[in-house]
Amino acid sequence: MILEHRGQAPRIDPSAYVAPTAVVCGAVTVGPDARILFGAVLTAEDGEVRVGARTVVMENALVRGRAGHPCAIGDDVLVGPHAHVNGARVGDGAFLATGAALFPGAVVGAGAEVRVHGVVQVNTELPPGATVPIGWVAVGDRVLPPERHDEIWAVQRGLDFPGTVYGVDRDTPARERMARQSAWFSAHRGDREV
User: Fold this and answer.
1) 181 or 6, which is more confident?
2) Domains in the chain and their CATH numbers?
3) What is the pLDDT of residue 167?
4) Dihedrals φ, ψ of 165, to 5°?
5) Cβ density class 98-126: b for 16+ within 10 Å, e for less
6) Count of CB atoms within 10 A of residue 89's CB?
7) Which residues 6+ apart lie within 8 Å of 149 measured at CB?
8) CB count, 10 Å around CB of 73?
9) What is the pLDDT of residue 166?
């Protein structure tokens, strides 16, 4: 399904393929020979999403762009099934395996790999050619195994997830945070199929 959102319609290169059950919504640009497979969702909320040439976004992946954190995926990238790429930049030739999660402000360098269920936290930069092993977490300038949670949290806390993702302080009550999110996502009520 191709949707106009906030007055912006997707731009899809004629050589690209978008599966009939995929959703491409808003200010999304899909490059030449890119493939958007079944169940994938590419949604430009109030920002942009750019998908490069020959990039494949596999089944049930989510790619989201926001005003403060547009999403830019380079050429020749594989975005694996069930991956989550939210407001991140991904360099040419990178590999994001099944279930990889990239959060707003994350940067994955050219040729880097985020393996199965690997995470790149908010405002974290993974250098070109680097690897996040299966299930590990890139946080700040470190890549750590999940059992080192206390070390991950010590770095992650300072990266300001709530401020980066929601635009609020960590201590903001859930009711206020989610009222803001609900209002923000209500813009989809005006979407129009194109």
Assistant:
1) 6
2) 2-193 (2.160.10.10)
3) 85
4) -85, -45
5) bbbbbbbbbbbbbbbbbbbbbbbbbbbbb
6) 20
7) none
8) 28
9) 84
Do 107 and 94 touch, CB atoms closer than 8 A? Answer: no
Q: What is the pLDDT of residues 34-89, one digit of tens each?
A: 999 999 999 999 899 999 999 999 999 999 999 999 999 999 999 999 999 999 99
Name the maximum alpha-carbon separation found in the chain. 48
Number of residues assigned to the chain: 194
The answer to whether residues 115 and 131 touch, using CB atoms and an 8 Å cutoff, is: yes
Q: pLDDT at residue 162 above 90?
A: no
Would you tell me how many other CB atoms lie within 10 Å of the CB of residue 176? Answer: 11
Q: Which long-range contacts (CB under 8 A, 24 or more apart) does 52-57 make?
A: 52/76, 52/77, 52/92, 55/31, 55/79, 57/22
**Pairing relation of β-strands 2-4 and 192-193?**
antiparallel
